[in-house]
Amino acid sequence: MFHQIGEEERKKLLACMDGRETVWEKGQILLGEEEPADHLGIVLEGSLQVVEEDIWGNRGILEQVGEGELYGAAFACAGIQKSPVSVVAAKKSRVLRIQMEKLMQVCPNSCPAHQQMIRNLVYLLARKNVALNEKIKHISRRTTREKLLAYLADQAKKAGKKDFSIPFDRQELADYLCVDRSAMSAELGKLKREGKIDLWKNEFRLLS
67, 37 in Cβ contact below 8 A? Predict the structure, then answer.
């Protein structure tokens, strides 16, 4: 969000946009479902999860938000009044919150730093769209095995090697891929026995 924006300009922008830093413990809800979607958040430290629950209590992880990444911007830009999802701290996190209305309304001075910030926002929203397309590619596979292999292959590609870690525990991975945890764990066991993967907690290695 602050790419190519100097420190002094950044301080002025945050004052203008009512930017506030907050600290959240693991499990705390930063933005609840049906709460006003009027701000964007930037993760300074830690990580968050964007989650959704249906009326039966089934939980799905829509997105993992890491350091330097955003939450809430798409809803606020789209004019959605109430958040359709919840944002939860996956670990202790420090977050900068900015009022979206003040970000989108460029001041009469037409500040170059403000314009740069809006360009940065467009870039980050485009990156989010790419990430969501990747998730669709994973969960659109027909079987749990295919979903796992598609996800793990992409994680290895991002890491640039066959040894890598993922940001989820077993239940979170099942929620992210929209599969049953027991069925997923059984499939991971089969893949390990077949010599296709090795794993330890959230550490993986692709063997073939």
Answer: no
